[in-house]
Write a structure and sequence with these properties.
Length: 388
Amino acid sequence: MALQNIGASNSDDAFYRYKMPKMITKIEGRGNGIKTNIVNMVDVAKALARPPSYTTKYFGTELGAQSKFDEKTGVSLVNGAHDTSKLASLLENFIKKYVQCYGCGNPETEVLITKTQMVNLKCAACGFISDVDMRDKLTSFILKNPPEKKNAKDKKALRRAEKERIKEGEAADKSKISKKKMKEVSKPTDTSAEDDEDDVQWQTDTSAEAARQRVQEQLSAVTADMVMLLEEEVTKSPRQILVEKIKDDLDKGVGPDAMMSSLTGTRKENVSAVYEALFDGVEKGFAKVVVKRRGYLAAVVGEEEGGEGQMMLLAAVEEFCGKVKNPMAVKEVPLVLKALYDGDVVEEEFVVKWYNEGLKGGNKDSAVWRNAKPFVEWLQSAESESDE
């Protein structure tokens, strides 16, 4: 059975773990009785964790045609002759609206109906609650035909279907160390403009005393600037110097291994400084930075047994959230944890350990722990399913 990644945005990711069968259609009948049979609708809907009646009905509402799904036979029919490509495009729209999390894009969501008759999607990975647009025609059908409640094992079936994530090589980073062009120390000046300025300036007072005073003022200004720069360098902490060095290496395109070999702090200091350098100044989209810079985080964490580096990195996440004045850094903690987990930088064992130690340390009411809770619970329930 030919498989494809769930979601068009993930179509080029060879290691994406969430997959579904490619749609197979068949034109049946002729004349006014012609219909399109989606032969494997049951398998497609099962991969999306949605009732096949939802996808069938969605096709009908979008095409303006009658549609019907037979629960007994599993036959999905839409009136009229419709190309497979057209139906596949509609299915992609269905996935965006009714399957993928609006926060992290994960397809492992559950359809919920609120007391006020609103349709929500709850993400099992990051805990985000997505509000479905109730103007869409399918929502009325969902309210009349709510999904069956699933047990924990059913909810996590997709996640344990396959784990094919391969560690991305960082060899390219080593060979692509770019050299920055030296900034020009001086630039040619417009002498005519200078002459004009000089004319205006010297017209005020052309005496020797006035000239000496102007020279003294210029020297004093330069000296003051130099003193301020020196004071700023002296007052920088070793941590600040380390973070700035890492930022400079990142700007130059220095690879992870080369960067790690040049760090001078203790291992804990290096882990914390690398995390801060990567995320300092980021307004939102922290998880995207993790995906883009995964190699640096993996390199500083290392691969030794015991997970010491992983625990240091998780502690750095907590430390960074408490240091910066950016609410998004705390809000996106579950997305960052999931990106680190998906990228094989941290393992579930140490995420759970870090979380439990934090709770014991009296951090239960901390925003970091509150936001991390849905992801940790997701890991624990998936682990229990695996044990069963």
